[in-house]
Amino acid sequence: MTAIVGVLCQDGVVVGTDSSATFSSATSRTIEQPTEKISIFGDSIIVAGTGQVGHGQRFKAIVDKSLKDGLFNRSAITIAKELSKLTIEDFAYTYSSKGEYGALLAFPANGMFHLCEFAVKDFQPEFKTKLLWYVSLGATQHITDSFLALMREVFWKNEPPSLSDGVFATTWALDHAVAINPGGVNSPVRIATLRSIEKKQLVAEILSDAALGEHRQNIDGAKKALRDYCDAMRMNIETPDVPRP
């Protein structure tokens, strides 16, 4: 089971995941083990997937080969369509059923950054845009979709967030999913970004625990502000102004 969040920001892309792999028998889940669910190729391509581990290994192999073959020198839509086609053909070769794997891909093309979702249902590509700039996949999608919708309503109603704010939102959404999910999703949360270095080359990196710690301090501050607001609101209700004669 997996929790994945992707955010297309004003100045880059954020992709985050949990770090738990679930083993299973023919009838039930057996154990959980820690794992890494984010892969980076060529210093600028981020891949995260949900579904069977073997399918993820095959998709990553396709991305790696496509990078070496020069596919990522073409337009963003061509890259996405070719990866979709190659992956569907590869899965069909071993009679894999549809609906068993989905992925997020962050990558540069023509000097711009892109976030593409390959849907679990049919592995068709869909790019995130300035109007629809976040996405989540995996077992906790019902949790993370709702949480991100609230974050958008409160903080970024009219435009995508900055990269720093995107990391903040992704960290909070995944921490929330880890805390309340019914099982199979676990910490540590991993966050990768695709951003411009010195306004030149787009570079992908996995953020350190220390970097995420700063965002968690901000999350704690936001929670405290909400509690303080509720306390103040409660006091106003409990102690109404007394009319003077």
List descriptors:
about 40% helix, 5-stranded antiparallel beta sheet, 5 helices, Glutamine Phosphoribosylpyrophosphate, subunit 1, domain 1, about 240 residues, alpha+beta
What can you see in these coordinates?
The chain is α+β, with helices and mostly antiparallel strands and 245 residues long. The protein has two domains: 3-207, Aminohydrolase, N-terminal nucleophile (Ntn) domain (Glutamine Phosphoribosylpyrophosphate, subunit 1, domain 1, 4-Layer Sandwich), CATH 3.60.20.10; 209-238. Helices cover 40% and strands 29% of the residues. The protein contains five helices and twelve strands. The strands form three sheets. Strands 10-1-2-11-12 form a five-stranded antiparallel sheet, covered by helices on one side. A five-stranded antiparallel sheet has the order 5-6-7-8-9. Helix 4 packs across helix 5. The radius of gyration is 20 Å and the shape is globular. The termini are far apart. The mean pLDDT is 92.
